[in-house]
Amino acid sequence: MTKKQRALEVIERLKKEYPDAGCTLDYDQAWKLLVSVRLAAQCTDARVNVVVEGLYEKYPDVNALAAADVDDIEEIVRPCGLGRSKARDISACMKILRDEYDGKVPDDFDALLKLPGVGRKSANLIMGDVFGKPAIVTDTHCIRLVNRIGLVDGIKEPKKVEMELWKIIPPEEGSDLCHRLVYHGRDVCTARTKPYCDKCCLADICKKNGV
């Protein structure tokens, strides 16, 4: 079985296992996802979803958040960790959206990368989830699982993993696959315990690297 054949089989099986898998960050507007992905660094999505409620209650739109004092933002987002740097990035990012993009989030990958605090993972998430464009989000679950399954060979650097996956995953499948890998990584192919290979839908095609 080639890597591409394995990838296509993984895609189909995970579709059946997690048909409704989607982004685990709550948002109803693109700029809110931009804020949440910054806060999610070294923090759980569940905690971010709670913290942003207070942030949006006080600052309900891009203009309000752009005009907010960085210290006030930091006070609210501190439970997510790294409060100072996250508050600074969010403030700067909202100012750019207000001043250069009429309050809208750009639908261009390179433009997203130029926003404060936005890396490839965040930009891909927004491109895929908000704009429905081809995207591969190489978060920790994705990196761990594609190495274990045998879709990439011992690569841990996110951009390199992303580039390898683009070679074997159909562009229209990338975003949904990455969401499903998150679910599978939490429920079955776990990081902190021995993975539950006995109940894994991929057991017979997984290389089980490192397990």
From TrEMBL:
It catalyses: 2'-deoxyribonucleotide-(2'-deoxyribose 5'-phosphate)-2'-deoxyribonucleotide-DNA = a 3'-end 2'-deoxyribonucleotide-(2,3-dehydro-2,3-deoxyribose 5'-phosphate)-DNA + a 5'-end 5'-phospho-2'-deoxyribonucleoside-DNA + H(+). Coiled coil: none annotated. It is an enzyme of class 4 (lyase). PROSITE patterns: ENDONUCLEASE_III_2. The keyword Kinase does not apply. Residues 39-187 form the HhH-GPD domain. Gene3D superfamilies: Helix-hairpin-Helix base-excision DNA repair enzymes (C-terminal), Hypothetical protein, domain 2. Transmembrane segments: none annotated. Keywords: 4Fe-4S, DNA damage, DNA repair, DNA-binding, Endonuclease, Glycosidase, Hydrolase, Iron, Iron-sulfur, Lyase, Metal-binding, Nuclease. Its cofactor is [4Fe-4S] cluster. PANTHER family: A/G-SPECIFIC ADENINE GLYCOSYLASE/ENDONUCLEASE III, ENDONUCLEASE III. This is Endonuclease III. It comes from Ruminococcus turbiniformis. The lineage of its organism: Bacteria, Bacillati, Bacillota, Clostridia, Eubacteriales.
